[in-house]
Amino acid sequence: MENDLNWAIGGEAGDGIDSTGKIFARALSRAGRHVFTSKDFASRIRGGYTAYKVRTGVERVESVVDRLDILIALTERTIEENLDELRAGSVVIYDGEQTTMADVEVPTEMIGLEVPLTALAEEAGGAIMRNVVALGAACEVAGFPVEYLDEALVKRFGEKGEAIVANNREAARLGQEYVREETDCPNQFSLETTDEDYVLLNGDEAIGMAAIAAGCRFYAGYPITPATDIMEYLTGRIEAFGGAVVQAEDELSAINMALGAARAGARAMTGTSGPGIDLMSETFGLVATSETPLVIANVMRSGPSTGMPTKQEQGDLNAMLYGGHGEIPRFVLAPTTIGECFDKTVEAFNLAEKYQLPVYLTADLSMAVTEQTYRPERFDMESVEIDRGKVVDPEEVEEWLDEKGRFRAHAATEDGISPRALPGTPEAAHMTTGLEHDELGRRTEEEDVRVEQVQKRQRKVDTAREREDFDYREFGDPDADTLVLSWGSNEGAMREALEMLDDRGIDVRFLSVPYIYPRPDLTEAVESAETIIVVECNATGQFADLIEHDTLSRVERVTKYTGVRFMADELADEIEAAIDNEAPPQEVRR
Amino acid sequence: MSSETHFTDFKSDEQPTWCPGCGDFGTMNGMMKALAETGNDPDNTFVVAGIGCSGKIGTYMHSYALHGVHGRALPVGTGVKLANPDLEVMVAGGDGDGYSIGVGHFIHAVRRNIDITYVVMDNRIYGLTKGQASPTSRQGFETATSPDGTVEPPVNPLALALAAGGTFIAQSFSSDSQRHADLVQQAIEHDGFGFVNVFSPCVTFNDVDTYDYFRDAIVNLDETGHDPGNYQAARDKIMDPGTEHIGVLYQAEDSVPFSDREGIDSNMADIPDGAPERADRLVREFY
User: Fold this and answer.
1) Out of A322, A378, A433, B48, which residue is the most buried by the measure of CB atoms under 10 Å away?
2) How many alpha carbons lie under 13 Å from residue A400 in its C-beta half-sphere?
3) Beta-carbon contacts below 8 Å between A and B
């Protein structure tokens, strides 16, 4: 009897895979179990293989592993796609009465569980509920009380009326009963439930929620996978807080609208993915030069160009660090967990306003679209602090006027941060521009002034280094000879890999770094280790380049750019191979 | 409507670098006059401009202003207005800025019916880059980039605006200062997107669309009995590119600005103390 479970439903896009997976994930969460989900989807609306995977444990789960215990296969291809992850004893639930599944052969070491999904769904009120029948069947196999689906079914179908909810409950019950009474499937799991209350959310949702909490009132964006969830989350919620979301005509417009809103004094945000930040980069320079606080969420996907829009990658680091012509002071924050998406979003707004510059907040696809359970107090609204920086009150305007009574919007202060007068502030009317300008915002090409303004803008970054705590999180053995560094969503898999490596007698110190620029000083940590390994989802090792640049030390690269996130066991193998300076093991799929 | 503000309050102490005789002087003066006449002052006014001769307007006016990138002034103005509906937002641009690189934004700002005023200084040439063809240059016009004459027919900005659902479409002539100021004032007072295309001659690079040409060619709609509320009549006038009309070509009586449709009425700059508390309910949604 096992208490941890890896479950998946797969089929064609349009089969309701996503919503079925979500119902199961939510039911587990309501039962006080930890959940970690992942999605495998193609860039199309209908057809094409798609899957929703759920890993659940009573202990916290932080990643996916290379194993499936229960698979609901709505298509033959689902079995083929997941063959590598199915083990002896894994249960494959499928509808043998379906003509396309009639010839399915589940390998003998696995358990093929034929359930007449469609027939039972029709009995419950309609063939459309076959997925819910399958859910009920899976609950029986998992030793998980089917009643826990009830609440999730209400959440999913409640709007359609009580009758629909009742039919779905019946469908789940019929699926459960069928397995219990008509099959001899060994009940090999018994999923324990607890009294814990968990919330279940993905990275995009955590970013959206944090934005509202942080006082963001204006969001402009253009739909793009996988950033759209942020916009969809905010739409319909931000209004209740006096804000608005505008679906702009393109990314050029989106960032300019957000810039305008920020200029007017609102905490503003735009969000996009790789191709979108390319389009935004001209205005990105204007945001920096006009010293406008702006948060830009870049939810990364596989590039370059249109790349693989629905696949994982961390390939935009250089674009965010160096994108745009000329030299542009900016911050780049990269939360490493879904929970941290919340904290770093709040921080991004504060940093943007305190230092009056653009802040990239970047998540990767794996973090953005997959869901994880948290204790609700993880998202503590009371702890959200809002720091609007040097916004001048009408009384303070006087001290920032020149001898002719003109507002010095770009005053070259010691810390590089100028007073900020929101439009409407009496006597402080001023212009800002992308042209090089003097303290008043007036165009100039005078050498001294140019140098002064460039230094002033750059000085803000130095000030931030002094005042802020650009830190990292540390795991594993602090005295280990091997140091692993990573950024973005690799933290969860890496933490689990640490345990696996520990079992193999390999000690590793692991630092997860959420600040890309400015970033913590890693020199000491790097110099005290014998082997330094940087883990990231791109081909060239963009973060590894930064570490080498900062520390003048050679680092090993463990990279993955298949479009799929690292799995914990795979990562453990790769780290071990990197320590031994060997090629990665054959079974690691690259 | 009169106010304590004088139009010179909107003048900055910078000396314009526009060529002597440039139509943009008159265009800007009319804007300042209209702002003063409508009871605005520099502290509640926000002027957005893009790149080109027109883009310099923020420098010569005194108000809150942003001088942005080429073609994107309208999205900036949209953001400013939605974030703080108390501000009077005026966007200025040129024919290149508005009808070439920024034409996509133009159509969408019109259809959103954002409650801002958009003044386009249309000189039918690229001035600041020294005389290339613009989207409103006449077909056959000889320029540095079209030595044998342009082959494309000009865009009709008024037609674009009408097709996009424009609710206030006007055209004026920078030299006819009182009429021009009056049209900009009507655009400001219009509840929605107030669009004014201004014949603003370039005395350096355009020797076709000159002051003399416009003085002869212009037909003042006030003198023709045109009813701006009559859509069909407006369409007929707008689709007659052979005539240089000035006046209000079309004004919808039932204009509802974007912010009204979206229920946006507060200044988003204000974050009330303890604002995150109410966000607690957002967490509960994820149970």
Assistant:
1) B48
2) 28
3) 204
Give the span between the Cα atoms of B89 and B75, in whole angstroms: 12
Phi and psi at A42, nearest 5°, equal -105, 165
Residues of B in contact with A205 (CB under 8 A): 286
Proportion of chain A above pLDDT 90, given as a percent: 91
- Written as six digits, the tokens of A387 are 């720091």
Q: B182: Cβ–Cβ under 8 A, 6 or more apart, which residues?
A: B34
Of A249, A283, A422, the CB nearest to B269: A422
Q: Which residues of B touch A430 (CB under 8 A)?
A: 64-65
Q: Say if CB A217 and CB A242 are below 8 A apart.
A: yes
Contact (CB, 8 A) for A355 and A292: no
CA distance B163 to A15: 40
pLDDT digits (tens, 9 = 90+) for A71-87: 999 999 999 999 999 99
- Whether cis (ω within 30° of 0) applies to the bond prior to A223 is no
User: What are phi and psi for residue A487, nearest 5 degrees?
Assistant: -135, 165
Name the E strands within A513-564. 515-517, 531-536, 556-559
SS3 B126: strand
Q: How many CB atoms lie within 10 A of CB A176?
A: 23
Q: Which amino acid is at A69?
A: D
Give the span between the Cα atoms of A232 and A224, in whole angstroms: 11
Could you give the residue ranges of the DSSP H alpha helices within A356-411?
Answer: 365-369
Question: What sign has the CA pseudo-torsion B271, B274, B278, B282?
Answer: positive
Q: What residues does A50 pair with on adjacent strands?
A: A11
Looking at residue B277, its pLDDT comes to 67
Q: What is the dihedral of CA A493, A496, A497, A499, to 10 degrees?
A: 170
The verdict on a CB contact (< 8 Å) between B80 and A404 is: no
Mean pLDDT of B237-263: 96
- Find out whether B261 and B192 touch, Cβ atoms under 8 Å: no
Chain centroid to Cα B38, Å, comes to: 17
Provide the token pair at A210. 């944090």
How far apart (Å, rounded) are the C-alpha atoms in residues A98 and A114? 10
- pTM higher than 0.80 for the full model? yes
Give every strand in the sheet of A358-364, ordered side by side. A244-247, A216-221, A267-272, A294-300, A358-364, A331-333, A515-517
Tell me the nearest-neighbour CA distance from B222 into chain A, angstroms.
Answer: 36
C-alpha to C-alpha distance for A525 and A334, rounded to whole angstroms: 20
CA B100 to mean position of chain CA atoms: 14
- Contact across the interface for A30 and B105, Cβ inside 8 Å: no
Instruction: Quote the minimal CA–CA distance from A81 to chain B in Å.
Output: 31
Best mutation site among A29, A217, A290, A403 for testing chain B: the one with the most B CBs within 10 Å?
Answer: A217
Task: Determine the residue type at A268.
Answer: A
Task: Say whether residue A209 is in contact with chain B using an 8 A CB cutoff.
Answer: yes
